[in-house]
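Folding Problem: From Residues to Backbone Shape
Fields: amino acid sequence; protein backbone structure tokens
RECORD BEGINS BELOW THIS LINE
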Amino acid sequence: MKTFDETLYALLNDVQVTTKTETIAVADGLYRILAEDIVSSVNVPPHDNSQMDGYVLHSFDLEHGDTFPVSQRIAAGEVGSELQHGTIARIFTGAPIPAGANQVVMQEDTEEVDGQIHIKVKANPGEYIRVKGEDIKAGQTILKAGTRLRPQELGLISSIGIGQISVFQPIKIATFTTGDELLEPGEAPQEGKIYNANRYTLSGLIPQLGFELIDLGRVEDTLEATVDAIKKASSMADVVMTTGGVSVGEEDHIKPAIEQLGSLYTWKVKMKPGKPLAYGKIKTDEGIKPFFGLPGNPVSAFATFKLFARPYLMKMQGAEQIKTNPIWLAADFEWPKANFRRDFLRARITNKRQESVVEIYPQQGSGVLMSASWAEGFVVIPEDTTIAQGDKVAFYPFSTFV
């Protein structure tokens, strides 16, 4: 049985990063992954400019007087003329600093006296001036290839005037469902059958990460139909992903189908939920396509997607940063019995006695999908570890996996 870390290492060590790229508008770049470095051709700001509304002057003049006539007015977007000694200019936030000036005085530190402006502060060269290139210098690499673009990165790229960017094309992931016991939502209940939760969990998880979902629906529960479905899925997508059906039972056809079309590795992982995990390679005319067989239990499928499939797929998509970091919080629960496996408990943050603590769902079974809906993240209990009330535990918000 593999440890969690051994399994994740084996998966990530086997990733082939996509080489497919496309050029898109910056406006369409949210959560896309850069395929090349972004290098600025301009300085930001492009000129020395005022941080405040107020008055601009030369500090030398302020050392010899404190009341000055206003010689010009400079608004943002305008360029003033050279400032003459003995005068000041009215200036507004973002406006360029004129030649001959080196200090801005806030409006609040001035007063009008007989048509002139009295300055109530001392000389301080450079005060309230944003210097040219202070944020970004021409020639500077501001973002590396592999960066996943958040709103702040889109703003950063826009600040240097770039309108088009090269990004990796979204990976296409094909899914389908097998199992004669499954009903689709909206169908009438039938004795001995259950509703298909995993299909719709995956249909939310996959697009949420920016991948393209190809949902091939439900497939007849035979080996021939399963082989045909895998062939179709692998011809349409970069990755094939299913849930359940990889055991050795007579009605489980995924395992022999994948082995017929390529190779399959099934691992028992020292974790809960999500012990069974399948990973394989499908041979196609276009090359090798990865296959993920997630467990059939709904919470196990959810957890193994988040913890194994997600980092694999993000690395395959070209992302450099795939690690998630925990928040360390006091446990508002006890875990008195150590487990030889690593536990991923469904949990959420609550407040007790003016302190943020983490509580766990009372039922942690791998079939209790309500626990994943109720929760805000995973609390990770390391192998062979017990937890007492108040102990610090690692909490991984679900949002960090997005």
Notes: The mean pLDDT is 95. The first helix runs from residue 4 to 12.
